[in-house]
Write a structure and sequence with these properties.
Strands 1, 2, 8, 9, 10, 11, 17 and 18 form an eight-stranded mixed sheet that branches. The protein has an eight-stranded mixed sheet with strand order 6-5-13-14-15-12-16-19. Strands 20-26-25-23-24 form a five-stranded mixed sheet, with helices on one face. Among the domains are: 225 residues, FAD/NAD(P)-binding domain, CATH 3.50.50.60; 108 residues, Glutaredoxin (3-Layer(aba) Sandwich), CATH 3.40.30.10. It is of the alpha/beta class. The chain has 14 helices and 26 strands.
Length: 512
């Protein structure tokens, strides 16, 4: 039996499942296949950033995911098992996002939530189905092996490879995956641990040439442990048992651990690599299939989810005949630049965390724990760190889909700044999967003229909203006079101008 669909998604990890949820928003048909039996039973990636929660909030999933996790509101720095300093993270992103924190939630629970959303919308995943080949032509035709060994032919308009670091889609497309392998073995373990320093904080033990991180998980005495073996560790990853991980942690901390149960552990090599292109023909890659890096800053899973968020609305417009290949090409332009910048950032953070260079080690162990908490009391430091870690600072400014006039505190290509007016989040009016034209401070005659011009040209493709020019708006945009903002369906600023005429706005929309 053959299947026909709009989008074939290969891989049902967080990236593939989140992409499927976005396609549901746009009414796009899809088939998603995965070789696994079901969602992962393990915790794996646990950090969910503010930008991901903002995305989930649009489809009503943020609150439920938050209920499954644990907010990282404090960090303690330890040396030789003794607390040397701490920092309050609870105010880190206040005023910048409705979710001003990092959420720690197990990947298994995260995936189940996304999968349930898919099933609640009368869709499903073809589990235990392996894509064995595909041909890209006028459509994409893929051969998929079913659980009984027979094959299924799936015909789709587009294919998206969300099939992980060893992606078959990436390989068969002939995309390169250049970069480096970190000369360390990483370990991760989920344990139940009687910990003397409380369960209310992320805790980091600083070593001479490494660090060990303890992440509190929801539930009594439940922790995620992450660290590295020293350079030159001779064993292969598959030959290491948990006891060796525990001995390494106790060696690095200089004290014994009271671990009562080990739920899961893994040892793995870490790579820092990115594709040379995120798309080829009618095929795309996203998530670990497109970029992998060190776990510094909990960026990987969140970046993959944002890949799908960027791609979904562009595929939807192309499938509906409302955009051409030029719009789809911007997926590669925007996400490739982001991936390359991300690799540089995570590499630098890991180098600081694990370097055995004398000066770096001295600063990391004897200066950083004592000054970090103080530095976070300065808004300029706090805001910069949160913007990077939370991914709200990702910008497509200067690229093809970003246009407008100068003189604002934000640029076209940046995420719509978050603020509250009259006690209401601006994001609460931006949940529909459409372009949003926001008119701030415009008089009724101007608003009426723009509505008529937009409706005659673009019908119902653009949702138009009128907002007063309140102080929160002036502060967010750095503008005292009326202006307009055209938001893309992913709530990034496409066009920003104090010219309230329809002419240039129509020129922008007509490009794609």
């Amino acid at each position: 039996m053959d299947l026909q669909t709009d989008i074939l998604i290969v891989g049902a990890g967080p990236t593939g499942l989140a992409l499927a949820c976005q396609l549901i928003r746009y009414g796009v048909r899809f088939v998603i296949v995965d070789t696994k039996d079901s969602t992962t039973p393990f915790s794996r990636a646990i950090g969910v950033q503010a930008r991901t929660l903002e995305i989930y909030d649009q489809i009503g999933l943020a609150d439920e995911l938050i209920s499954l996790g644990h907010r990282a509101e404090k960090v303690k720095f330890l040396k030789d098992g003794v607390v040397r300093g701490e920092a309050d993270l609870s105010e880190l992103g206040v005023g910048l996002s409705p979710f001003p924190y990092v959420l720690l939630v197990e990947q298994g629970l995260h995936e189940k939530l996304l999968y349930q959303y898919i099933r609640d919308n009368d869709c499903d995943v073809l589990w235990q189905h392996e894509m064995v080949s595909f041909v890209d032509g006028d459509d994409v035709t893929a051969e998929v092996r079913k659980p009984d060994g027979s094959t299924l032919s799936i015909r789709a308009k587009y294919l998206v490879g969300c099939d992980g670091a060893k992606s078959r889609v990436r390989r068969d497309l002939g995309l390169t995956f250049e970069g480096d392998t970190v000369e360390r073995l990483f370990y991760v373990a989920d344990v139940e641990l009687n910990w003397p320093h409380g369960h209310d904080a992320l805790q980091i033990n600083l070593g001479e040439d490494n660090l060990t991180a303890f992440f509190p998980l929801k539930g009594e005495d439940r922790w995620r442990l992450v660290g590295t073996f020293p350079e030159g560790h001779k064993k292969d990853e598959g030959d290491i048992l948990y006891d060796e991980i525990e001995r390494q942690i106790e060696h690095d901390m200089g004290s014994k651990l009271d671990i009562t149960k080990v739920n899961w552990f893994s040892v793995y090599n870490v790579h820092s690599r990115a594709v040379n292109a995120f798309s080829k023909g009618r095929c795309f890659v996203a998530g670990d299939a497109a970029h992998i890096h060190t776990p510094a800053g909990a960026q990987g899973m969140n970046t993959g989810i944002q890949d799908g968020y960027n791609l979904a609305w562009k595929l939807a417009l192309a499938l509906k005949g409302k955009a051409d290949g030029a719009l789809l090409a911007t997926y590669n332009e925007e996400r490739l630049r982001n991936a390359q910048a991300l690799l540089k950032t995570t590499d630098r953070v890991f180098e600081f965390a694990a370097s055995d260079e004398w000066l770096v080690s001295v600063v990391r162990n004897n200066v950083f724990p004592y000054v970090f908490g103080t530095a976070l009391k300065f808004d300029i430091v706090k805001n910069e760190i949160f913007s990077i870690v939370s991914q709200i600072g990702i910008s497509y400014s200067g690229l093809k889909l970003s246009s407008g006039t100068d003189g604002f505190a934000v640029e076209p290509g940046e995420r719509m700044p978050w603020f509250e007016a009259d006690g209401k989040s601006i994001y609460s009016s931006l949940t529909s999967p459409a372009f949003h034209l926001l008119l701030f401070g415009a008089d009724s005659e101007v608003c009426s003229g723009l509505r008529q011009a937009m409706r005659s040209k673009w019908q119902d493709d653009i949702e138009i909203q009128e907002h007063p020019l309140q102080e929160a708006v002036k502060k967010a945009f750095g503008c005292e006079s009326p202006f307009l903002v055209l938001l893309r369906p992913d709530n990034y600023i496409g066009y920003l101008s104090d010219d309230l005429s329809a002419e240039k706005l129509n020129e922008y929309l007509a490009r794609y």
